[in-house]
Design goal:
Helix content is 42%, strand content 7%. By secondary structure, the chain is of the alpha/beta class.
Length: 500
């Protein structure tokens, strides 16, 4: 990923409202004060609230006294492009169009009709811009895309990091365990709690005029039809995977806010119920966080307002313990460990290791023990196509895979079991890694994400330690079985729902 240079100020004497370290120059090209507008290339934080990226673009617009133009593109050739993923993004575009229209901001939602049709759009809009602001996202194809754009554009390209409560590069290295990263969070986070994004970056924003979209752009790259955004037009004409149908949940910031409110209503039960599939007590927020429809800062603020919390409640000492540091109840402590420690640990790996989804990036001990048992007899062997159809002998595993196919999600605890069984049923651990990534990235709404990578590679030993006794196939990698899981957890209703 392009490291760039941190940007300290917006202008010569005007301090930025976005904290230092969250804005990077992706290239060394100049800002053009005589441009017609400031261009915000919205690729990660696909929302209009709690967004450092939009906040930075707005302050640049104010500084340069130029209107704001927002480009939110949706390609068709991204890996695993499907009706499910497109529909979720389009739902967000619908919400964004309404908010930008109300704020008097020119918004261009472009949906590519065929592979390569978007080529040249960014450069054409940048030709009339003062500078381009975009989102700093450390996973999927986005880092490569931004690096390529930085080389092509003859004007400044700024990347803005709104991925987590800690700035991406605060860590300065990839952390090997949740405990060590949690200790970093506990040392560094208090200083970050006063630097949250504005809840509404567009509040009070009065652009000098609306940015005009060039006529040749309107002809060659027309905005997505309203019927495509709101679902009245289907996706059949687009060259994407139509076998992966839309999920039963809607995407977009409006749906994300509703999901957050619903979770807050059941947060008190999170600690005791989250591992039980019958309870379905998990947050359900990961797809919205993945697509940028929901900010982790907004989630944190809502949870802590509910708790009546302020930063003076932080526990001591900051030694990496899972509980006691936040100074809140056990359910909120457990959720914050997922939202902050585990989610941002996955981001941390992707920032400092772009090969994090590859076998070679796994801990040496895990690769060694799995390689030593690679030739062990597998009591069952399934091709990835059989796994995809949920056509195994294991009823609980089939139920989890069926949930993934139907709904685009896996219960958080069963996701671990799902991966462990794929390891046991694959010819080699390398094949298991490929199968897990393919199934998750194709079907899961929160696939293709830093947390997908960390969860899948955890199955193979990342962020874990050797476990005894040494077992066939697994070696000293942690073992899980469907039988033990069914004994420990409440799964009867889950099986009735998904195992038919």
């Amino acid at each position: 990923m392009a490291r760039g240079r941190p940007v300290r100020t917006v202008g010569e004497n005007l301090p930025s409202t976005v904290p230092f370290g969250r804005v990077l120059d992706a290239n060394a090209a100049p800002v053009r004060p005589d441009g017609r507008y400031v261009l915000y290339w919205m690729i990660g934080a696909r929302r209009t609230e709690w967004s450092f990226g939009l906040q930075r673009a707005v302050e640049r617009s104010r500084e340069l006294r130029r209107p704001l133009l927002v480009l939110e593109p949706l390609r068709v050739a991204y890996p695993f492009a499907s009706d499910r993923l497109h529909r979720f993004v389009l739902d967000g575009m619908r919400d964004n169009a309404a908010r930008f229209r109300a704020a008097g901001v020119t918004y261009h939602p472009y949906v590519e009709p065929e592979p390569g049709a978007a080529r040249g759009l960014l450069e054409r809009l940048a030709a009339d811009a003062c500078l381009v602001v975009t989102d700093d996202v450390p996973f999927f194809f986005l880092p490569r895309m931004v690096r390529a754009a930085a080389l092509r554009l003859p004007l400044r390209l700024e990347q803005v990091d709104g991925n987590g409560l800690l700035p991406l590069r605060q860590a300065q290295r990839a952390y090997p365990t949740a405990h060590s990263f949690r200790a970093l969070v506990q040392r560094e986070l208090p200083a970050q709690l006063s630097g949250f994004p504005a809840a509404d970056p567009l509040a009070g924003y009065a652009p000098p005029r609306r940015a005009g979209l060039p006529a040749d752009v309107r002809r060659r790259w027309p905005a997505a039809a309203p019927g495509l955004l709101d679902g009245r037009l289907d996706l059949a004409s687009l060259p994407i995977d139509h076998r992966v149908s839309p999920a039963p949940v809607r995407g977009g910031p409006t749906a994300a806010r509703a999901a957050l409110r619903a979770f807050l209503d059941r947060l008190d039960d999170y600690e005791q119920d989250r591992n039980h599939p019958d309870r379905d007590a998990t947050s359900g927020l990961s797809p919205y966080l993945h697509f940028g429809h929901l900010s982790p800062h907004a989630v944190f603020a809502a949870v802590m307002i509910r708790e009546g919390w302020h930063d003076g409640h932080l526990g001591r000492p900051a030694g990496g313990a899972r509980t006691g540091w936040w100074g809140v109840g056990p359910s909120t402590e457990a959720f914050l460990d997922q939202l902050v420690t585990w989610r941002e640990l996955g981001l941390n790996r992707c920032v400092f290791d772009e090969s994090s989804a590859r076998w070679e990036s796994l801990p040496a001990w895990a690769r060694a023990t799995l390689a030593a048992h690679a030739r062990d007899r597998r009591p069952h062997r399934y091709a990835v196509e059989e796994l995809e159809r949920a056509a195994t002998h294991d009823r609980l595993w089939n139920a989890a895979q069926t949930q993934l196919l139907r709904e685009g999600r896996l219960h958080n605890y069963l996701r671990m079991l799902w991966g462990k069984r794929i390891l046991e049923w694959s010819a080699t651990p390398q094949d298991a890694l490929v199968a897990m990534l393919r199934l998750n990235d194709r079907w899961a709404l929160d696939g293709r994400d830093a947390n997908s990578i960390s969860g899948i590679t955890w199955v193979l030993g990342r962020y874990d330690r050797p476990w005894g006794p040494e077992r066939p196939i697994f070696g000293t990698v942690r073992y899980m079985s469907s039988e033990n899981t069914a004994r420990k957890l409440r799964v009867r209703e889950y099986l009735a729902r998904y195992a038919s």
